[in-house]
Specification:
By secondary structure, this protein is of the alpha+beta class. It has 28 helices and 22 strands. Strand 4 and strand 5 form a beta hairpin. It starts with a helix and ends in a 13-residue tail after the last helix.
């Protein structure tokens, strides 16, 4: 044991000295190993620091309170909840039977124990005036300076409000609004102004734009002012922070929480969250579908397998890149290793010296990577918090995780040095001292093992894509197959040697040298192969997915057309939005559109609050899709039909969804406009233009028109009665306005519009309309500068404006393909460069002899360039072939999954399947392949030629 310790100690000292002497090579290998360690360590530190403990989450949610009481809005009906207070439902199951779901407020204050300290916490929103215009902002009324609320808001500057006319604002609001401390702000349509006295942040949402006011100082008077102007008052929600008297009260236990639940109140209790009860004592978890969510064991195993595969492939890539570098070191230390053998050193000592090189570099990489990760994560903590949008709970370092990550670096270094160590130990002492390389036959076992792995992996991937539809199985099989190709690399490199007879002299010499010295060529080629295979696989999958997305893309408008819609506040921002488009974009035609308004004109499109009504297009019973028509007993209507009948009904015109792209966010997709809208949308039917002029209803949806050629528009003024009727599967009560319809022939693209009525026809029928927005056609596609100016103009309106500029299909994968190509190119150049350096070390004597006999200096450059190019070309070619197959397997898996979903939707009558089965293409990214196959090897060759010195040191060649 003592001799072993001393021999390894000496080996490590020798390796440390060699590493210090060859600083460039050592730094290269250290960087290759340390950079991934740095990234993984930094991710671990960031993830763990951002992970909040239950106590930290409670501090940000309820401050120093013992509990938060919230109304479950079940009209006081008893509820059951989970221990965290996130989920709740009624004790009685209202999904069965005819009883309507209880909906109404509860007096939460009556459930708060006497003597407790209570803070009201109310949240709403308002459009606030800023230095640039209007900004829709959250408004929170909470006495933030009270000790009970400590931790919910963190004051950065100034103070929290103390008077009714003061507010504090978040840092994000100050940045967006252009205001500062001491500025005044108000809300649109509100005659009160408020002074900004403080700046704070929400620790769990740093990007939140919010203002804080005292309870009752803003939301109630603002709502009254809005309602007075004819608009519906904005809604808001409230809860209560409760702190029990006495330090030893113990807060609210689980039994107390369940007692409070019987009164329809939901509770977030500090005591319960910190010490949750067993699942068996949680009534909610005994309900079907309400159990505590836990990731399944199979899902965990799949995630671990995926993570292990990624880590293993990354380590393999590093080993393939670093291995030749250690081989260079061993080759250049050949004489030193020979002297060790000449002085009685065994082969194990030679292996120990080379392995110690990997150990030294691995330990150094682990230390450098983890230390830099800790320093950078700590130094960049404020920026990371801003990027993530939340403050860390604390800077958390888990030593075991960091040590495990560092151990990966050490293991990677050792694995990288194993093959060079074995190769060096097999060399005779005489060959090491004289510099002779000898002739060694390549192993025949490794290619056979590689071929077996390739076949097994291909079978597994094929089974996963054709039989199981499992992504994990396909990816695992592809990884095994790729490892098999890597193991076959030496044999494949030998096959490339047969092409040398057709090459000119310099590339033939480079290829012959690469084939004869497969020990240094194969790892570099394998490294390039692995990187390129991954790049080609991801690129092929991305390009195929992109082609499928493009084929299934439905434009929202004609190319270059623009649309601005606003369904809020009775459309009062519609004119301002229209004028903003006219000022900034090259508009050709314009069509103003309106919508039907029932009740108060200030109601939003889907507003069901008091005083606001709705309307609906009456679909005749004969035109209703049988698969979707509600049944009297509440069962699934599709269950009344056989599978074959559902297949037939899915193709019935009554069940057609009419999905041609675009959407109109109004009931029945009905718009009120004149014939200009038809021109903007490119609808050229003269009958539709004439029908509008005649006051008819222009229909693009066949089910809307009854057998007499009429369309009914039902005006619903009582929203509560409509809700009750819907729950009882009864017709909605309301007044029906009937119009003579013109059914547009064929299937023109309407971009979501299913009905069109002229303003004159709506007025003649006694229907009230309000502005909705404007459609535009343009002379040319708006450029980026015009879009930015328009966005800035619309931002002044404070949100609520829906802008659409139809640019056609825009690929999301272009930047991905470019990034992958660059990554593969860098890895290829790096691996080929390492192999070239090793080749030069081997061929130094030959190069000196060439120089001695009068060879031009450029020969060294040319030979170096071709050596690098040959390695790059072989790796890229093999990687391109190996990468396409996994992508094809994954796409076949996607096809089976999408076909299975299509068949399931067809069998169950879900609709949306009238377009036929999905088409899942497989597209090869030829541009990426061309860049990899041509430009990357060429670039590697030119770079190697440029960095190689033309003249080497002229010396006498050693006699053999």
């Amino acid at each position: 044991m003592t001799n072993l310790f001393h021999s390894w100690r000496a080996a490590i000292r020798i390796a440390r000295r060699d590493a210090w002497r060859s600083k460039g090579r050592s730094f290269l290998v250290l960087a290759m190993i340390a950079l991934p360690i740095l990234g993984v360590s930094a991710f671990s530190l960031t993830f763990r620091s951002a992970e909040l403990s239950p106590g930290q989450k409670l501090e940000r949610d309820i401050g120093a309170a013992d509990a938060r009481f919230s109304d479950a809005l079940t009209d006081g009906t008893p509820i059951v909840q989970d221990p965290k207070g996130d989920q709740s439902t009624t004790v009685e199951d209202y999904s069965k039977g005819d009883k309507p779901w209880p909906d109404g407020p509860t007096d939460v204050r009556k459930t708060i124990p006497a003597g407790a300290t209570v803070l009201t916490d109310t949240s709403g929103s308002a459009k606030l005036t800023t230095a640039y215009g209007l900004l829709t902002t959250d408004v929170r009324e909470l006495k933030a300076a009270d000790p009970v609320a400590k931790g919910i808001m963190r004051l950065r500057e100034g103070r929290f409000p103390e008077k009714a006319d003061e507010v504090a604002v978040t840092t994000s609001f100050l940045e967006s609004s252009g205001l500062r401390l001491g500025s005044t702000l108000s809300a649109r349509g509100f005659d009160r102004s408020y002074t900004i006295t403080g700046e704070y942040e929400l620790p769990s949402d740093l990007k939140q734009e919010q203002i804080n006011a005292l309870p009752g100082a803003f939301l109630k008077p603002y709502g009254a002012a809005v309602e007075k102007s004819g608009l519906p008052a904005p809604g808001y929600s409230g809860s209560f922070l409760v702190r029990m008297p006495g330090a030893a009260s113990g807060g609210f236990t689980w039994n107390m929480v369940k007692e409070i639940n019987t009164k329809g109140v939901q509770v977030v209790s500090r005591a319960v969250v910190l010490n949750p009860p067993p699942d068996a004592e949680v009534p909610l978890y005994q309900r079907e579908g309400w159990g505590a969510y836990e990731e399944s064991t199979a899902a965990k195993a799949a995630a671990l397998a995926a993570a292990g595969t990624v880590v293993g492939l990354a380590m393999l890539e590093i080993c393939l890149l670093a291995g030749p570098a250690f081989a260079v070191g061993a080759r250049r230390s050949r004489r030193q290793l020979g002297l060790v053998g000449a002085n009685g050193g065994a082969r194990s000592h030679i292996r120990a010296i080379v392995l110690s090189g990997g150990l030294v570099i691995g330990v150094a990489a682990a230390v450098v990577g983890t230390v830099l990760a800790v320093i950078l994560t700590f130094a960049l903590r404020p920026y990371l918090e801003e990027y993530l949008g939340q403050r860390f709970g604390s800077f958390t370092v888990r030593p075991l995780e960091i040590l495990a990550i560092g151990a990966l670096a050490v293991l990677t270094g050792l694995l990288s040095a194993i093959v060079p160590a074995i190769t060096a130990s097999r060399e005779t002492v005489l060959a090491s001292l004289t510099g002779r390389r000898g002739v060694r036959k390549s192993s025949r076992v490794l290619p056979l093992l590689g071929l077996a792995a390739l076949l097994i992996g291909a079978v597994i991937a094929l089974y996963g894509s054709v039989v199981t539809d499992s992504f994990i199985i396909v990816a695992g099989g592809s990884a095994i197959a790729e490892l098999g190709v890597v193991a076959m690399t030496p044999a494949l490199v030998g096959l490339f040697g047969r092409t040398g007879r057709w090459l000119p002299l310099s590339p033939r010499l480079a290829l012959r040298d690469a084939v004869r010295n497969r020990g240094r060529t194969a790892p570099a080629v394998a490294a390039v192969l692995a990187a390129v295979a991954g790049t080609v696989a991801v690129s092929t999958y991305a390009a195929s997915n992109d082609a499928q997305n493009e084929a299934g893309y439905h434009p929202s408008l004609p190319y270059g057309a623009v649309r601005v819609l606003t369904g809020e506040d009775g459309g009062r921002d519609a004119a301002a939005a229209r004028d903003a488009v006219l000022r900034t974009l090259p508009v050709d035609l314009r069509a103003d559109v309106s919508r039907i308004s029932v009740g108060r004109t200030g109601c939003s499109t889907w507003d069901s609050s008091k005083g606001c009504g709705q309307y609906e297009i009456v679909i005749p019973a004969a035109n209703q899709c049988p698969l979707w028509t509600a049944s009297a007993d509440g069962t699934d209507p599709a269950s009344r039909f056989t599978k074959e009948q559902r297949h037939a009904l899915a193709k019935d015109w009554r069940c057609a969804t009419g999905e041609d792209g675009g959407s109109v966010s109004t009931p029945g997709s009905l718009l009120i406009a004149d014939a200009a809208l038809l021109k903007v949308l490119g609808i050229t039917d003269p009958g539709a233009v004439q029908a509008l002029a005649d006051g008819k209803y222009v229909s693009f949806s066949r089910p809307q028109v009854d057998k007499t050629g009429k369309v009914g528009v039902k005006l619903v003024t009582d929203s509560e009665a409509a809700q009750r009727a819907s729950e009882q599967n009864k017709p909605t009560p309301g007044e029906v306005k009937t119009f003579t319809a013109y059914q547009v022939p064929g299937s023109p693209k309407t971009y979501g519009m299913q009905g069109l009525l002229s303003p004159a026809a709506a007025k003649a029928a006694g229907i009230t309309t309000v502005p909705l927005g404007t459609y535009f056609s343009t002379d040319r596609m708006p450029n980026a500068e015009q879009r930015q100016r328009l966005d800035a103009e619309l931002a002044k309106l404070g949100g609520g404006v829906d802008l659409t500029v139809e640019q056609g299909y825009v690929s999301r994968y272009d930047i991905v393909l470019i990034a992958l190509t660059i990554f593969a190119g860098l890895v290829t150049i790096g691996a080929a460069g390492i192999a070239t350096g090793l080749a030069q070390a081997d061929a130094e004597a030959d190069l000196k002899t060439l120089a001695a006999v009068g060879a031009p200096p450029r020969v060294r450059r040319i030979l170096s360039g071709f050596q690098c190019g040959v390695v790059a070309a072989m790796g890229v070619l093999l990687g391109s072939v190996a990468g396409v197959l996994p992508a094809m397997g994954l796409r076949l898996t996607d096809e089976r999954q999408q076909l299975a979903y299509y068949q399931e939707a067809l069998d169950n009558g879900w609709g949306g399947v009238t377009d036929g089965p999905p088409e899942v293409p497989i597209v090869v990214p030829w541009q990426t392949l061309a860049a990899l196959l041509v430009f990357v090897p060429l670039g590697a060759a030119l770079l190697a030629a440029l960095v190689t010195r033309s003249r080497g040191a002229l010396a006498r060649r050693a006699a053999h």
